[in-house]
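Input (structure):
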């Protein structure tokens, strides 16, 4: 199923902005879910719709943003400068509420941007300052796997703002490394077009394989 219209949650983030642009430039429709009215003109100038909704709002509010779309991509994150409370509210509860909103809106396809390694082992090995984030992602991933939705979970490496290369290494397990945010956005765009990624999750870092081929190989 090629997603004709996609809701991007966390659209005002760096990956989200790249993804909205790629979707529109690819001839598809994008709806950017953002928190502030002043963020809207950027997306409207691209030709995208906007939905001004906070991830701390109710499931029903988020459902309104998901009405009428073919897919949801969750790229939101609390960021490195917030406390454990925001990690729980955004990275865990925000993701779970978005899954529930997609179910309520009848959206079947859901792509989630997670952390590189969200295994139980990664939680135990993480420093105390980072472990709440890994815990949040671990349970958000589990909620999506158990949801019955046509899911894909993308586990990017260390995110950078370097210029996109158009090439990555992507597989169930890859060596830890860096990856430009714009390349992650392209991975997400290609994932939306590739049914073979449904029901799968994979790690992605910078590499030597063109992104469309890397995604097709998942």
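Output (sequence):
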């Amino acid at each position: 199923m090629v997603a004709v219209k996609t809701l991007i949650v966390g659209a005002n983030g760096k990956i989200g902005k790249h993804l909205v642009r790629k979707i529109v430039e690819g001839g598809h429709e994008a709806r950017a879910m953002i928190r502030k009215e002043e963020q809207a003109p950027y997306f409207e100038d691209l030709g995208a719709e906007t939905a001004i909704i906070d991830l701390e709002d109710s499931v029903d509010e988020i459902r309104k943003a998901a009405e009428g779309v073919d897919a949801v991509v969750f790229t939101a994150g609390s960021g490195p400068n917030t406390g454990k409370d925001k990690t729980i509210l955004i990275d865990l509860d925000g993701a779970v509420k978005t899954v529930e909103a997609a179910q309520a809106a009848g959206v079947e396809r859901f792509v989630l941007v997670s952390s590189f390694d969200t295994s139980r082992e990664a939680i135990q090995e993480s420093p105390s300052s980072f472990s709440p984030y890994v815990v949040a992602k671990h349970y958000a991933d589990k909620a999506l796997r158990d949801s019955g939705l046509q899911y894909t979970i993308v586990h990017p490496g260390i995110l950078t703002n370097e210029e996109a290369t158009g090439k990555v290494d992507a597989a169930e397990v890859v060596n830890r490394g860096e990856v430009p945010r714009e390349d992650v956005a392209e991975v997400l765009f290609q994932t939306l077009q590739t049914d073979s990624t449904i029901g799968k999750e994979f790690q992605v870092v910078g590499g030597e394989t063109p992104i469309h081929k890397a995604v097709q190989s998942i």
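Notes: The mean pLDDT is 94. The chain has one domain: 5-156+182-198.
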